[in-house]
Design brief:
Helices cover about 50% and strands about 15% of the residues. The protein contains ten helices and seven strands. Helix 5 packs parallel to helix 8 and helix 7 packs parallel to helix 8. The protein is elongated. The relative contact order is 0.12. The site of guanosine-5'-triphosphate has 23 residues, from strand 1, strand 2 and helix 3. The site of magnesium ion has 5 residues, from loops.
Length: about 300
């Protein structure tokens, strides 16, 4: 067992209400997972999960028929990518909660019980892959660390594994999320939206070696990063532009002070550096203006939300 990168205090508070497997639909997006899907479905049944929805992305290796033979409900997705599969599932799920998990044997059904323990107190509970991180390919691990750190920073949420493929979410809440992504950026899109309008938390889970061929490629990383910045700009502009402001204003001030110091004490004038610093300052001023406007809008939004809630 590897040590956990998040402290237990960051984990969600346990709820008193007990949610059973009947209240959950397990949604499994699959694309050519004939080696893993049978194992995943057997494991789910063993743990008492009967509502299983396999959303197929037009597999050509017999995944659909294996899943049907194992008694799962199998539908073909609309739209493209893993995101299309989740969008398709939203219209079909009838239980108050849904859990998304991969069909590749990397997650264990027993961990869904852990997610359920905390379900009533949050809109989304992410299964943070703290045990078995070595089974995540090295490149994905680095990318995951980077994106989760940025998510933490931009949304001010203690989430260490925003790209985990196992998460539990309130069905009604997921219906409110406008899913525009078409690929593996769907997890970031959902988590950002929930972080902005509801409550999100995580619990530690295990992660195991993948069966079958990986679909996530390094090129997806850029798209996920783009979606994260777009979401932060959309849902948390105050912090987003505040960070841009500090990144521009601090170096601008340092460079400008240095050019003044050099000019005053040594009579050397670094014109190019001074010009660069002034341009950075102008950029920072624009970020500051957007931060102020975002702050005002956010404040009005909070006031309106408070009024609506008190009615
Ligand atoms: N329906 C559908 N499922 C997909 C599509 N692309 C991937 N999947 C499934 O989504 C799940 C996650 O894909 P993986 O390749 O495991 O990607 P990952 O979990 O992010 O990466 P790993 O760390 O290798 O597990 C798997 O069950 C895939 O079969 C798609 O276009 N449509
Ligand atoms: Mg996977």
């Amino acid at each position: 067992m590897t040590s956990s990168p998040i402290s237990p205090t960051q984990y969600s508070r346990r709820a008193t209400e007990v949610i059973g497997p009947d209240s959950v639909t397990v949604v499994i997006p699959v694309l050519n997972e004939h080696e893993g899907i049978g194992i995943v479905l057997d494991d789910l049944r063993k743990e008492g999960f009967e509502n299983i929805l396999v959303v197929d992305g037009y597999s050509t290796d017999g995944t659909q028929s294996i899943a049907e033979r194992k008694g799962a409900t199998v539908i073909s997705q609309q739209g493209t990518g893993k995101a299309g599969a989740i969008r398709t599932a939203i219209d079909v799920v009838r239980t108050p909660y849904l859990v998304v998990m991969d069909g590749d044997g990397t997650y264990r059904a027993v961990d869904i019980h852990r997610l359920l323990t905390y379900a009533p107190s949050h809109d989304e509970i992410i299964g943070a892959r703290t045990n078995g991180r070595q089974h995540i390919p090295r490149f994905n691990r680095i990318g995951n660390r980077l994106i989760s750190t940025l998510f933490k920073l931009l949304f001010d949420q203690p989430i260490s594994d925003v790209l985990s493929g196992m998460y539990l979410i309130k069905t009604e809440k997921l219906r409110e999320v406008e899913i525009t992504s078409t690929s593996f950026d769907v997890e970031v899109e959902i988590a950002s939206s929930i972080a902005a309008s509801g409550s999100i938390s995580q619990v530690p889970i295990g992660y195991f070696p993948r069966v079958g061929k990986q679909k996530l490629r390094p090129s997806h990383g850029g798209r996920i990063l783009g979606t994260l910045f777009w979401m932060a700009n959309y849902y948390n502009p105050v912090l987003f532009y505040g960070i841009i402001l500090s990144f521009a204003a601090i170096p601008a001030a340092v460079i400008l002070l240095w050019t003044v110091y050099e000019a005053v004490f040594f009579g050397v004038w670094h014109g190019t550096y001074a010009l660069f610093a002034i341009m950075l300052f102008l950029f920072a001023t624009q970020a500051a203006a957007v931060t102020m406007i975002s702050l005002l809008v956010k404040r009005s939004e909070n006031r309106i939300m408070r009024r609506l809630r008190s009615k």
